[in-house]
Amino acid sequence: MSEKLKIVIIDDEFSAINALKTIIEEFVPQFEIIGTANSAREGMEMLNNSRPDVVFIDIQMPHMTGIELLQSLDRDIDFEIIFMTAYNNYAQEAFKLNAFYYLLKPINIPDFLPVAEKVTEKKHAAKTENRRTKLEAAFGNKLSIPSSSGIEFITISDIVRVEAAGSYVEVFLISRKSLVFSKNLKSMETLLYNHSFFRAHKSHLININYIQRFVSHKDGGTITMSDGSEIDLSRSRKDEFVSMYKS
To answer: How much is the pTM?
Structure first.
């Protein structure tokens, strides 16, 4: 039996939360609701302190929209987002946040079930890939990257930096070559955990062996790499970075 997906529902309308709970409990046994919130503030606290697989979130809420809530989180968005809205004019903002889907309210069963099936398939595939990533991290110093002609094997120590590109990453090598890899940055961080890499920013992993210069400023700093690239160091990661170089 497949592992259940952990679900959080955020909506300022109790009736909408209860309607969605009823559909899930009756028709989607692979979903397990681990929490609900009926305000953006409560929802933000819940997401910062839990690890859901899928979040159903209303877009229009008092004081803060669902989109603003997600943009303000103190953590990576490693869960699938399904927006719920009574209006059909939020598609562009939703896609900027890599929302898996959005549902028009009131939510009905024929619309909901295909979305539930798709998100289940995607999350189970991602969990299988994550297990493979951890196995790769445990063996050897090579990284295998599928290409159009086969598989490219690169030496991990040759990687200068890794940059997020949506659901993909671009891997930049000391040879000035770059490769696109169908993993997200969080998976790459796990894979490269024991290989001198540092998460400088939400969109960048850097190999500390290729750092040439660091300039501090009030918003964090700028790191210059050996390939000439300049990487932003986020303010929240500055202390950790500086502490690595204190004698």
So the answer is: 0.55
